[in-house]
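REQUEST
  id: r-88c1
  op: predict_structure
  target: Cyclic pyranopterin monophosphate synthase
  payload:
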Amino acid sequence: MAELTHFDEQGRARMVDVGAKGETHRVAIARGEVRMLPETLRLVIEGRAAKGDVLGVARVAGIMAAKKTHELIPLCHPILLTKVEVDFTPDEDRSVIEIEARVETLGRTGVEMEALTAVSVAALTIYDMLKAVDRGMVLGEIRLEHKSGGRSGVWERGGAARE
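RESPONSE
  id: r-88c1
  status: 200
  body:
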């Protein structure tokens, strides 16, 4: 199989050719969070935000972003996604909304970028919907937690890669 690289023989950027790779079930899980004032989190939990259902809108935004990752990130492949889930967990003790995205496909390349994009856009949407009451929110800790499928096997944050 040819080397998987974003550079051609002349050093120019190109999309990686994944044509020779086999199709496998691929899964990626990403997480992140939005830290906010306790009173801002309370507005979300109680459904009293002026712009409406913050988490409902952020969920749809995250799903849509996963589907359009190839339009946002240079050299990403357009991928037919078979499943996208975006979930939220408010944590009142830390005054954060935790975000998790799970993305799946049956394909030749992984969906890590799609999961990370879903979390990022969901976090940005939360910020957008609440910025009028809390411009000091902090978006962060966006990271890949799990990936499986393909030649590299399973990868878990905090653990070793395995077949």
